[in-house]
Amino acid sequence: MKQSSLLITFLFSLCLFLNANDTLPNIVLIFVDDMAYGDASCYGGDLIETKNIDKLADRGIQFNTAYSISPVCGPSRVGLLTGTYPGRSGVYWNPDMGGIQFSDDRPLLSVQLKKAGYKTAIVGKWNLNNPSWNPMPAKKYFDHTANTMVWEGDYWPDATGHYHGVNDDKYGSTKTNNIWGPTTKGDVYLTDLLTQSACDFIDENSDNPFFLYLSYNAPHSPLQGKLSHKKRLSHIKSEALKLYASMLLAVDEGVGQVLDTIDKKGIKEDTLIIFLSDNGPAKTNFKGLPKEWPRGEMLGSTNGLRGNKGEYFEGGIRVPFIVSWPGQIPLNETIETPISSLDIYPTLSALAGIDLPKDEPFEGVNLLPLLLDTDSQISRDHFFWAGGRIGKHRGAILKDGWKLIVNHKGKDFLFNLDKDPNERINLIANYPHKSNALKSIFSDTLKGMPEPLTDRSKLK
Fold this sequence. Notes:
There is one protein chain. Helix content is 26%, strand content 18%. With 460 residues, the chain is of the alpha/beta class. The strands form three sheets. Strands 1, 2, 3, 4, 6, 8, 9, 10 and 11 form a nine-stranded mixed sheet that branches. The chain has a four-stranded antiparallel sheet with strand order 12-13-14-15, with helices on one face. The longest helix has 26 residues, at 239-264. It starts with a helix and ends in a 13-residue tail after the last helix.
């Protein structure tokens, strides 16, 4: 009965909004790369002050228990843009991205929203294209594209003004770290360039409903910072972390410029903004680092959560997640209800008043009732993750506060997150029935999914 009442309330509120504005709300989806759960000040971060991300939280709802569908870049974007487990497309880990294909029956989020009347744009990291043999250019799925990259890009341009990895068929950056720029007068930092492209799109398209996917590649490596930040980061002793902090500052500045542009156009109450990260923080184990730098240093803060990028502990999959829609949803609220990046597709589809594609699986939940009434309850049986370099038989299940991590370095872990949110006590030997039940859900879910697109025996 309560669910029916909530649905009626939601539909009534949405109708009032649409009737009052005679248009669909604009949507800005800001997806950042490798930003840790605890980096933003509003999530307890103390490395730098993220005043603009905090401002976004003040204008809306901060989710404290939000999950990405993967602990690595590629599959997390597949899940975000399809609304379903990336394994359903044969994607379990980054190497699988080279063979990905989507059927026309499975429209990506941008295609779905275009059907509802949105003008769509992507700025930044695309990651769903393999230019060598399986081209899926972003322009196939968006009306407007700007400064897109397959994987990652250099943050400072070369002598010709080109950013390696951006607007080309390169798979990534030059892997050159420890750069403070500009090294040439007039050079523009890549994050600032992406921000400007996003603001230009908003400025030029504010008269009609738009969907902007602002996909920052920061603060992902290579570690390249802005010299203008260096003085205020002098309190940070680690050179790697100092550069990371500069990259994070640039993202925060970008969020501020996007908010300012929306305010100046007078569309603040007509624009829903979602901000989240694709996975947890990386460690300094990637290519191109100076030999004298320590390896294994965490870039970013999980705020005490165990794990990092590439792992299914909370630190690898729990991410910052903020939703802002002034005048339509509560201000300065925090919600503990667990949610997923998979929820974005059905939520935005409902907001646009368009049905989900029939005969296609969607594991996400429509969050609009919860956004409109933070006391609402949403129904979800469990959370599921799968994938790794070894194949698909690695991952995690979370149900009713109990979390089973499957095959982490050959070992299973069971945690009661309600009592042990930092995952310190492995209860696998204490609760065999609980672990077996969760393992059964994991195995049953995998049965309906294809094998990885990439032969794991050929991976280095």
